[in-house]
Amino acid sequence: MARGSAGSQTRPWTRWQDWGAVILGVYLILATLWTLTGPAALTSMLVLGVLLGLSGVWSLAMPGSITSEYAHVLLGILLVISPWALGFAAFGGAAWTSWVVGVLAVVVGVAALPEANSAHRSGMAGQH
Q1: What is the CA radius of gyration of the chain?
Q2: C-alpha dihedral over 114, 79, 56, 93, to 10 degrees?
Q3: Rounded distance between C-alpha atoms, residue 59 and residue 100, angstroms
């Protein structure tokens, strides 16, 4: 079997990084059940969790979409800055959850970029 064949990289619903984004989004949403939050923290965690989960599903369904991987990174950055920007850094659990999930979202987004670029190029080559 050829190592790194294009067919295995472009199949939808298989990339671990995108599943990671979905799991991180769902975790962020569920974390509001056991984490002390205020209105800003609750809203931030719910909205960004839903968006992160949806961007993960988008990446899973369309593995050649580079934009979806950048969405993971952008949402991760927003999660990291949200405790300070929205004033809930004093809620330790909510802030730490946002920081950790945000960093992990950036990591999975950046880790998926090479495969997304490869899948994108393979898809573009198939259209000619």
Answers
A1: 16
A2: 120
A3: 21
